Amino acid sequence: MKVVSAELAIHLNTEKTFTSCDLYELVLANGNAYRYADCDCDIVLDNRIYRHDALIIRRQQISLEGQVTVDTLAVTIYADGNHAEDTIESMPIMAAAHSGVLDGAKLSLKRAFFRETGDLPGASVIGTIGLFSGDVEIKNSGGTKLELTIKSKTQGLNKEFPLRKYYPQGAYTTAASGRVTSSGDTDDYCLIAPFVPRKEVLL
User: pLDDT category, 46, cuts 50, 70, 90?
Assistant: First the structure.
């Protein structure tokens, strides 16, 4: 269920036509945030500026669900790298993607609705609806196009093990002696399995 302000709820329930745009917020692993608006002017919301003259961002359509789902959002960013507005952490966004700057980043998508004023100044924002939020993964990067896959927060529900974690070689207790046995040898094949503290030999 999406939570909106009372003013926006009245607007959506009474008006027949809407003026709106997408707002993107990219938060890097170091906490730095970059905000972009898919419209013709900068949008000011909660004293934060969403820039319109930086990256060109296009996304696929999404469907809203009333239950927990594991979903992804495809986002394509266009930038030629010749403008200061197309940079992240003082680097062109393409170089930033190849350098790992986007590793661990999160992207959130909102839809902002405006009063009918003929233009889109920040003061005309009635409210926003949060549409999607998740972890950033780079799908493809080259030329002027950067393709991202945004995986929802529920994506981890279908994984048996957390990503990018080191699992040390497990020890087991032999049934005969009761001693803990472990191995420091390495081989070309291995199996990661949950350790169950039983009097059994794990193969």
Answer: confident
